[in-house]
Write a structure and sequence with these properties.
Helix content is 36%, strand content 33%. By secondary structure, the chain is an alpha+beta fold.
Amino acid sequence: MNIAITIILIVVGVAVVLALIALPIVLIYRNKYRAAAEQLDTELAAETIIRPLEKGNYRGATAPGFPTVKNSGRIALTRRRVVFVTFTGTTISVPLDTITGLRRSKVFKGSVVGGWTHLVLRTAGGEVGFYVPDTSAWLQALGEATGLTPDPVA
């Protein structure tokens, strides 16, 4: 058998095995995300929405009780809370009455990504970080909702 055909068969075989492994994982997390998103939609229907669900990234937290793993998902602001649902189906909620400060930061938990600025929510226990498409608009909306003034940019 020609060596080129052997290499092609090996590559195709490996790709098939990887697809068989990845497909169930993708389907499981897709279903978890859909279930969490439906639950969140139901909850948000009963709340006053200030900023509707939009793309975002959870960047971790120094506050206890929040996941340590960074994740992509969708974020919204209501009169009651900042809520984030990850693509893996985890819902992260920060009640507005627990927020003690707001700031924007290029660095959060030692992480820097070019072109992105962290939206950081300070609570009594620590901080929670997000990337949002429009950090300034989020800070303004959070400031109006909480009555807090964002920290000046250093």
